[in-house]
Amino acid sequence: MAKGQNGQTDKPAGKPRFQIEDTRARATRTALIVPDVQSRAGRSNTGNAPLLGVEPRSLDARAQEATGLAAAISLDVVFTEALTVANPRPATLLGSGKVESLAIRFHDEAVELVIVDHELTPIQQRNLERAFKAKVLDRTGLILEIFGRRAQTREGVLQVDLAHLTYQKSRLVRSWTHLERQRGGKGFLGGPGETQIEADRRVIQDKITRLKGQLDEVRRTRTLHRSRRKSVPAPTIALVGYTNAGKSTLFNRLTESAVKAEDLLFATLDPTLRRVRLPKGTEVILSDTVGFISNLPTALIAAFRATLEEVLEADLIVHVRDITNPDTEAQRQDVLDVLDQLGIVDRDGSGDRPILEAWNKVDRLDGDRRLLVERQASTTGPSVMPVSAVSGDGLQALLEAMETSIASTREKAVFDLRPEDGEGRAWLFANATVLDEEVSENGHIRVEVAMTPRRMAHARERFSPMGASADPI
Questions:
Q1: CA pair distance 248, 390, nearest whole angstrom
Q2: Most buried residue, 126, 200, 348, 466, by CB count within 10 Å?
Q3: Where residue 425 sits, what CATH number does that domain have?
Q4: One domain, residues 327 and 316
Q5: How far apart are CA 318 and CA 400, in angstroms?
Q6: Hey, how many other C-beta atoms are within 10 angstroms of the C-beta on 195?
Q7: pTM of the model
Q8: Tens digit of pLDDT for each residue in 258-311?
Q9: Domain span at residue 359?
């Protein structure tokens, strides 16, 4: 071999002896199973029982949504099978023959990850992993993976970690022999100690406790910020809706901001708030929230409750619906189910605060279909508006409906301001719905406004020391 200038022997050119494949840029080869699990009564068990008039989702629709969930974290879905499970097995959910045939197919396709669009018990997950010789995720696990990739703020990351640990704690089963070993106590008189699985569970519980403490600190900070917003009492409006209904696109259009908006499920996880001025001058705070989805795990709702507190505090809820989706009615009910679990509205949509429905994406409809949707919206009532967040169609009507809805739940009063109180007049225009204004002969400004009882009390406290009268209407 030739020697280099430093006297060292040069290495021969060519391929290195060992070459490690960089798999970071390669998408995981994934198989997707969408089971339609039948209950003993013979009905599909795909989530909450549908209300009268709301058809359950078809297998094709569920498969399409599950594919969208996989695409949200860039998985390479190489195989999809939707199937009916007439007799769910406690050990594997699927029948033994189906498990064997799928295992052969997964081996031939070099599948690395199997997603089952259904909730699996820990035992079922373990047994399927053994049979398929691949990692298995159920619907909850997949949603957690998406949330883990998308969370950006400290609060979002903490919430994902908490939900993930809670889920992981329930998955601790004796899959490996080391979980059956015991750790003995110290000294000769020590007891048999704890099993490894108990130790793992204790470690996870300690982490959960620590995360809950950190989340409490974040919630206190959010409560402080919310109390500051209440001191300058602008009404709050929360955008809610099924994931990928176009909430963030609508939010950007209304606020002229640049919140991340993509044609992906769960593109938005962390809440975003912006001020918006409505047509008659009312200034409101608009909140973009995480999208909902069918069969959202209860533990996940609990973990993200702090994020959804903006909805809990909202004066008005705008339910954004993708009216082009064939399952739009089922998606509507899924959103109402989550709001019902949060104690905001009942499953039928009734509650103690107004809800507007924005039927989004009408720009994607052809002429006849769009006319039909617009006619249906007009006959449903004034709380339903067909809109397009992309083209801007219907947004002026939506803003006017927001202002009318807020005003309808307000106390009305007339404030008589001194001529020099321009700051007070500006405050009323920024923080109330101004219904009328006139200047009297003596120069005093008569302003008729509408506000919530809480904000009206704040306004009276603000103006009374300055000599302004507030006469109820």
A1: 11
A2: 126
A3: 3.30.70.240
A4: yes
A5: 13
A6: 16
A7: 0.69
A8: 555 554 555 455 567 888 999 988 888 898 877 777 776 666 666 566 566 667
A9: 234-408
